[in-house]
Amino acid sequence: NAMCASIFGFTEQTALDGVPGTDFPVASGVLSEKVLRDVLESGEPRMFPHSRTDADGKTAYYQTTLVPLRKEDEKTDAVLCLSADMTTQKLLEKKLSEQLAFAQKLLKTSPIGVLIAVEGFIRYSNPRARELMDLREEMDVARVYPQLREAAAMLPTLEDTLTDIALKSRDAQGQPHHLRVTYTRTEYEGAPGIICWLVDDTQNKELEKQLVLAKEEAETASRAKSDFLANMSHEIRTPMNGIIGMTHLTLQTELTSRQRDYLTQISTSANTLLRIVNDILDFSKIEAGKLEMEHADFQLEQVLEEVASIADLSAAEKGLELLSRISPDVPPVLEGDALRLSQILLNLVGNAIKFTQSGHVLVSVTQERHEGSKTRLRFSVSDTGIGMTEEFQKRIYDSFTRESNARVHRIEGTGLGMAIVKSLIDKMGGSIEVSSREGEGSEFVITLPFEMADAVPEAQEQAEPEKKADVRGLHLLLAEDNELNADIIRTLLADYGITTDTAQDGRKALELFESHVPGTYAGILMDMMMPNMDGVSATRAIRALARADAKTIPIIAMTAN
Q: Phi and psi at residue 553, in whole multiples of 5°?
């Protein structure tokens, strides 16, 4: 037929009554006279694969079967030639073979272990799996690890979901490995099983362990640093209180103008040093994440008045006007942390005064947004000072940062103020921006969210005439281990006609209170940090006493923290 003629390269006319390969050319020796006679003589069919390449270089693949035909006397006298085009199948087999070789190469070189388990036995494992689990070729029938046996038992409920389990193994050298095993159901040689991918997680586990240790060490170091700074701040504040207190007492006496000038400068320097200590402690708390915010009602106008009263002296010394302005739509009573708001404004106003030689510093407050019981206020602190360079504005909130050039020489400070301000504002859920040009002043704009509190009752809005309590003749118990501070406190109280008994520690304070008749002491001033028994322990012990006044006597905490 035409298909046969096409495969072997002849036509029906040239081939009829002729011997192939002898009387007419053929494209394959499959149809040679010798082959045909062999089939006739043997009486057995024969199968031959062969191919043919055309002028374009394309190869076609065939399979030809030669079948002997017998007559009734079973004598073979003819051959039937059946040829099939196998090109598509050959190409497919070649592609499958290449893919199989590629897959085998991937499995052999993969850094991920692969194994197949059927009915709890390993039926296949790649080199990486054998390495991680110390398997050998002859162990392909060894039982899998218990976790994988349990996984196999769960297969009926897993459907086709990939599942992860953790697995510990040891390699041939005895080294431990933490494996992360992902597995799913499969079929292998007609039987249901699981295919597992083993990822060596040992380095990650070790890294996690190191990170945990590093984190613990960092937290320990941070705690130690915070404790050190807190203790140092306390230790510094105690003598500083003595200096400030004694200076204050001395300034109440008769002095020459030179002595008064010297003592005033000592007082100013001491208060500056105290502010630096406060900054360092605040910064330490912020770094340690221990700075807590208060939520209480406060009057905004009162906060601004307190800021002004503290900053007024510095402004007056430089001949500056310190102005404040509150927009009428700003709620008068807010809920939040008044102390931290005051700290933020004091830092900004203090800086503005430092960098302003003439003109004014203005604090203004407006309402930016109002929704229900919530309000967002805009605080602006502007000045007519020397301004800032663009470069310094980019790093103004960095810790320990100060502008250092001829314009601002002799400006004191730690360089922590703006870092603390930024941290406080962030913690309060607000934002801060600065705009400044050299020689044209600066403006800091803060936005902060607050809850609006109930308005102050009208009766309380009018300030009543201040009434001074008659404290003369009161007798107090003073618990204070620092003799200098105790002396200052006794002297200050004596000015008001108050007498004291002094205890050097909490245990002595407890003994004095117990040994005196109820009602002897009008109150107790209790230092927090003392040897033998601290203020908190002493307070608990006094409150636990059976006598009635132990429950009611006012105990006032004193601390340099």
A: -65, 130
Where are the extended beta strands (E) located within 161-308?
163-170, 176-188, 191-200, 296-299
- Write the single-letter amino acid at 300: L
Mean pLDDT of the chain: 84
Q: How many helices (H) and strands (E) does the chain have?
A: 18, 19
Rounded CA separation 418/253 (Å) = 39
Q: Is 76 exposed, middle or buried (0-12, 13-18, 19+ CB in 10 A)?
A: middle
Structure tokens at 83: 């040829």
HSE-up of residue 231 (Cα within 13 Å, Cβ side): 7
The answer to whether 144 and 152 are in contact (CB under 8 A) is: yes
Dist CA 454 CA 460 (whole Å):
13
Which DSSP category does 516 fall into? S
Q: Which two tokens stand for residue 521?
A: 């002491």
Q: What is the largest CA-CA distance in the chain?
A: 156
pTM for the model = 0.49
How far, CA to CA in Å, does 486 sit from each of 233, 246, 464, 501, 534? 19, 11, 34, 10, 16
Give the span between the Cα atoms of 425 and 559, in whole angstroms: 27
In this structure, what token pair is assigned to residue 304? 């601004």
Share of the chain above pLDDT 70, in %: 89
Within 8 A by CB and 6+ apart from 528, the residues are: 534, 535, 536, 557, 558, 559, 561
Q: And the tokens for 356?
A: 């302003």
Neighbours of 239 (CB within 10 A): 14
Bridge partner residues of 375 (DSSP): 370, 450
- Residue 50, helix vs strand vs coil: strand
Look-up of token digits 């306390």: 234
β-bridge mates for residue 322, sequence order? 361
pLDDT in tens, 203-226: 888 888 888 888 888 888 877 877
The average pLDDT across 227-239 equals 77
Residue 416 β-bridge partners: none
Residue pair 503/532 in contact by the 8 Å Cβ criterion: no
CA 349 to chain centre: 34
Specify whether the CB–CB gap between 71 and 55 falls below 8 A: no
How far is it, in rounded angstroms, from Cα 156 to Cα 23?
Answer: 69
Half-sphere exposure of 443 (CA within 13 A, CB side): 10
